[in-house]
Specification:
Elements lengths: L1 H17 L19 H8 L1 E5 L7 E2 L6 E2 L1 H12 L5 E5 L5 H6 L5 E6 L3 H4 L3 E2 L8 E6 L17 E4 L3 H8 L4 E4 L2 H9 L5 E5 H10 L5 E3 L7 H5 L7 E4 L4 H16 L2 H8 L13
Parallel strand pairs: 1-4, 1-5, 8-9, 8-10
Antiparallel strand pairs: 2-3, 5-12, 6-12, 7-10, 7-11
Helix pairs in contact: 2-10, 3-10, 3-11
InterPro entries: Solute-binding_3/MltF_N
Protein name: Extracellular solute-binding protein family 3
Keywords: Signal
Amino acid sequence: MLKSVLAALFVAVVSTGAVAQEFQFEAPPLFDNCGDPSLAKAKTEGVTLGFSPSPPYSSLDPATKQATGLDVELVEAALKWAGVTKFKYEVMPFGQLIPALLAKRIDVVAANIHVTPDRLKAVSFTGPAWWYGPAIVVAKGNPAGITSFDTLKGKKIGAIAGSAADEYLRKIGVAVTAFQTDAEEFSAISTGRVDAILEDDVKVIEFMKANAASPIEIVQNVAIPDELIFKFGYGYARYALRKEDCSLRSAFTQGLAEVRGNGQASSILKKYGLTNRNMFFFPL
C-alpha cells in the first residue's frame, strides 16, 4: 500500500514538473478612482511600447513583428496584471524614446530606463523592476590603464547617446563619444576607436558570450561611486511614462511589485541567464 502511495506521489510530482508554471496573484487591481483616464484607456485600446533593439533586454522579430526579451516580458506581465492586454511596438534608438513618449508616438518606454536628474524633468517612472550594474569595458590587456572612474578623464570613452552612462560621464567631466546603437558601440571598443565604453554589465556579458573572439574585457574590481547608483542612473531598472498618466503608472508599478512577489519576475530573469541577485541592487 505504501509503495502504491509513494508511486502515485512520484507520478504527480513528475507530471506537475512537466507543465508550465502558472503564476497566481494575491491582490486584484484597484485603480478605478485614481482620477485620470490613462489606465481605462490602456485597458480598452491597449498601449504602444517603445524600445531599442538590445538583447537580452528587447528585440523585434522582423518576420513575425513579435517583441521578445527580458524587459518586454516583464512589462507585459505587469501590465496584464493591471488589465492591459493589447500591445503594439515601436522600435527606435534609445535616445529617441523619451521624445517619442512625449510626442505620444508611444505610451511606455519599455526599454529599461533609470532615474536621472535630467529625465525626472520630463517623465515619470514606475517602481523598481530589476537591477544590473555598470561595467567599464576596455581592449584586452587594458592598454589605456583604466582602473577607476577617475581614470576615464582625458581618454576617449564611448556610451549610448542619452543613456545613464552618457549623462553621468558628462557630469564628471569625461568627453563622451556617443553611439546610437549597441553594434556601433561594441565595434568602436573592439577596433580601438575609443579607449573604453561604459555599459550595462548584463549587456556586455551577453555580447561577450555571443562574440567570444572579440578582443575586449571588463575592468575588474572598480569601485562604483554612490551617486552613480542613487542619482545618475544605475539604481533599479524601471520604465517611463508621461507625467500625466498617473493611473496607468500606479497600476503598472503595482503590477511590477506583484510579478516580483509571486515569482514570475524571478522566472523571467532566469530564462535570460540571470539570477535572483538581479532582483535587488544591494547584496542578498
